């Protein structure tokens, strides 16, 4: 009998790719999503890729009654991957209370439900934003947290603290936080990808929408950062590589391979690329020219960050396989799929 995995936020960008990798690895997938930043049709893409349609429940995890009713029907879940959260740095600066409610309350209610039902295993969708602007690069798991540069980043810091404290208080709980850097790209089939509602908060969807003529101009925030070309630097990771790491984390929990009941890992490529470098790669591999303008810095953004991935490579036996050219090629292929099926 297949082990059942709950994926919260599973019709979202990273969640949908992880659902595909879980199904391909032989797990039964159940998705909960309120569709606030995703679409029901994502389930069609998952089904076309895998041949299996996940069980789907539409509700807000902050709705305690709906969560209780859900678990009454799915008490046999073996592990949870918790993606469901608001995730745009810029929006979080403007709407901090929304982010604290959605991201913190949902985690607390989920952990309470796990304890009631005896579900031990959870993989938490964390972020490199927990480090703020580090004093030294690359970032290792030993890098201390600094004050978050945005409410979004703070919700990930607090989320990790809640998990750590809960694991201390409830030793039967097993948790892994995956601190990922900047996921980009799309599935090779172009049947699922990043599909933000409204104006994108992330760079690559803005790039692809500008290339497609949906956006008139791409704004590059910052021209005086301490980087080779003055634009901000990030560690970009292909979403499929990231999804596979979540499957490995679930397997680690279910097989009891953890060194402690709360672990955390950086997931990135270990290489920093600037915004202007990403634009150059996108233009080159897709033979396109982008209309972009360099403007002042954006509140909440950090200057530069990239990962030391040695711990994840060693402990999870995971490493990235897809490079930046494939990231930009697949992102554009996905945008073309969206236009074709609009």
Would you kindly provide a written description of the structure presented here, covering whatever features stand out?
It is built from 11 helices and 13 strands. Helix 5 (96-117) runs parallel beside helix 6 (151-169) and helix 9 packs across helix 11 (324-340). By secondary structure, it is an alpha/beta fold. It has a domain at 4-185 and 236-268: 3-Layer(aba) Sandwich (Rossmann fold). It starts with a strand and ends with a helix. The model has no long low-confidence stretch (mean pLDDT 96). Helix content is 40%, strand content 17%. The longest helix has 22 residues, at 96-117. It has a 7-stranded parallel sheet with strand order 3-2-1-4-5-6-11, with helices on both faces.
- Tally of alpha and pi helices: 11
Tell me, briefly, the overall form: globular
The radius of gyration over CA amounts to: 19 Å
For CATH, the homologous superfamily of the domain at 4-185 and 236-268 is named as NAD(P)-binding Rossmann-like Domain
CATH class of the domain at 4-185 and 236-268: Alpha Beta
Distance between the termini: 39 Å
Please, what is the average pLDDT? 96
The helix/strand class is alpha/beta
Order of helices and strands: EHEHEHEHHEHEEHEEEHEEHEHH
- Biggest beta-sheet profile: 7 strands, parallel
Strand order of the largest sheet: 3-2-1-4-5-6-11
CATH fold topology of the domain at 4-185 and 236-268: Rossmann fold
**What is the helix fraction of residues, given as a range?**
40-55%
Uncertain ranges:
none
What is the CATH architecture annotation of the domain at 4-185 and 236-268? Answer: 3-Layer(aba) Sandwich
Tell how many strands the DSSP assignment holds. Answer: 13
Oligomer: single chain
Roughly what fraction of the amino acids lie in strands?
Answer: 15-25%
């Amino acid at each position: 009998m297949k082990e059942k995995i709950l994926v919260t936020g599973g019709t979202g960008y990273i969640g949908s790719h992880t659902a595909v990798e879980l199904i391909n690895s032989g797990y039964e997938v159940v998705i909960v999503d309120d569709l606030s930043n995703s679409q029901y049709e994502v389930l069609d893409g998952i089904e076309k890729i895998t041949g299996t349609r996940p069980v789907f429940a539409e509700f807000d995890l902050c709705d305690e009654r709906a969560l209780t009713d859900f678990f009454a029907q799915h008490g046999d879940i073996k592990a949870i991957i918790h993606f469901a959260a608001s995730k745009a740095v810029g929006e979080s600066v403007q709407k901090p209370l929304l982010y604290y409610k959605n991201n913190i309350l949902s985690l607390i209610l989920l952990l309470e439900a796990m304890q009631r039902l005896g579900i031990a295993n959870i993989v938490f969708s964390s972020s490199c934003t927990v480090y703020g602007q580090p004093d030294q690069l690359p970032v290792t798991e030993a890098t201390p947290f600094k004050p978050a540069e945005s409410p979004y980043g703070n919700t990930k810091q607090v989320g990790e603290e809640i998990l750590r404290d809960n694991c201390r208080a409830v030793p039967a709980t097993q948790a892994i936080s995956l601190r990922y850097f900047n996921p980009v790209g799309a599935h090779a089939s172009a049947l699922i990808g990043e599909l933000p509602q409204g104006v994108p908060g992330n760079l690559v969807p803005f790039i692809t929408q500008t290339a497609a003529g949906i956006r008139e101009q791409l704004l590059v925030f910052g021209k005086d950062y301490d980087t080779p070309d003055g634009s901000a630097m990030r560690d970009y990771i292909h979403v499929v590589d990231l999804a596979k790491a979540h499957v490995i984390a679930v397997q680690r929990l279910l097989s009891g391979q953890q060194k402690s009941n709360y672990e955390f890992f950086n997931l990135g490529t270990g290489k920093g690329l600037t915004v202007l470098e990403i634009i150059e790669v996108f233009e080159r591999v897709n033979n396109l020219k982008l209309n972009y303008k360099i403007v002042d810095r954006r509140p909440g953004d950090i200057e530069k960050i990239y990962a030391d991935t040695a711990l994840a490579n060693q402990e999870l036996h995971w490493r990235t396989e897809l490079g930046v050219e494939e990231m930009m090629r697949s992102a554009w292929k996905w945008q073309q799929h969206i236009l074709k099926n609009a």
